[in-house]
Predict the 3D structure of the following.
Amino acid sequence: MTKSSCRKERLVTSLIWLCVLLISAVFFWIFGEILWNGGSKLTFDFLTLAPKQAGRGGGIGPILISTLWIVGVAMAVSIPLGVGAAILLSEFKSSENIFILLIRRSLDVLAGVPSIVFGLFGNAFFCKTLGLGFSILSGGLTLACMVLPILIRSTEEGFRSVPEDYHLSAAALGLSRISTLWNLLLPAAVPGLIVGIVLGVGRAMAETAALIFTSGYVDRMPTSFLDSGRSLSIHIFDLSMNVSGGDPNAYRSAFVLMLILVLINALASFTANYFFKRRIITV
Amino acid sequence: MNITTDSAYPWSPLEKRPACCEPKSFLEIKNLSLSYKGEKAFEGVNLDLYQGCITALVGPSGCGKTSFLTALNRLTDLISGCKLSGSIKLAGEDIQASSVDILALRRRVGMIFQKPNPFPLSIRKNILFPLREHGTTDKSEANAILERVLQQVGLWDEVKDRLRAPALSLSGGQQQRLCIARALALKPEVLLMDEPCSALDPISGGIVEDLITSLRGKYTILIVTHNLAQARRIADYTGLFWVRNHVGQLIEYGTVKEIFESPKEELTRAYIQGMRG
């Protein structure tokens, strides 16, 4: 190696390291700031009490419940729809079927649509046209629309990762398509589905703009799916932007949100592992 | 033995082996042609598979042997743009008729692939799952079949203590024998084998080959192989596929003795002697 190429290599290596450092630094900065300002003052009461004085005091009990319900509605609607669509998409190649090609393009476009647009759509369609009003149901359904493209794509990847061999050997044994799907393809696609669910729940949890217009602002404890409910991310947004003196509780809520996301991630990778082992190794 | 005298590739005389059966035709193939999106893979194949015999198809790569095999259990249905013409009769019944139950057909005509492809399930589930799908729901009956087929392929003593272990933890040769057991569990009449030993090491390949020989007389077997010596060792009948005008054709078909010792075609003679292909 000549001197100049050696120097070039060193330069590129240090540049790459610099990028890695910068990215991790940003993450640790955010995480550290939230931990410093929110984590140290977190108490159990904060998780259970209702907010007082527009959130300056009290806790986030009803807000956690509303968030759970909204995300629950979103996932309950999007998982069955997403898996169904993923099965259809994975059975066809887009080069062969114009309908499939159209679906796939639409999903790509949908995945890139800003969340505020979903919010306006949800407001017009679920709140007004369907008459659901500002409610947990409207919010959840709007989030379902947002999450679907991610969910479908990653589940489809899961189905596609199943080797062609399994299709062939199953067919050669005279197994029906349904039983091949149920016994071989679906279990193999579970890890992909779980990745999709994690990404989807993450996106739904962190969503603010789409919910302002659909599930509303009310910080009371919800009593039905038709009640308005405030999600955690809207609470954080409200405390930090509209409520003077709300910052300490905004930090605390942000810490709780991050904690939940980390927990969901850990749980998901654990479940994916479990499913993988159970279906593929012992049965 | 004129072959051995002028051959660069001398064969020892063919061993005498027990006659497999009365030469009774079980699978009759007439004028079979197959094309993928208008491009012909093979054409005009006429061939009778005799009941209980092992028939080997030999020939260079890409001459349509594997395509021919997949036509016989209608796996070609899965490939879009694939067109089959001619007739295939299994025990006198046309398998291309629209009334044919394709799942039942594939149960009667089992297939073993080049690469062992057990399902990512446990060893026992690999055999029990297809059985259950084909209606064997009684547990003790299914377990009896499990033991019988694993013994038949010589795998029982090796795996009886770890039937719940993943099938993919087995060695390549064991996986291939498991796949054969999986096919046998469905009580097929015909077994199609696409180079079942070529992805295995020589010792495992030898074990699988012995296993195939042991199936003679019980199943009608069609095996595709690149290994001429193997065809000569195990087959009763041999067919040579070759590409002519970019289309695969069956050049010559006969008993192993005819093909290896007195071939009618010059091409067969050259191929057998290792001068072509």
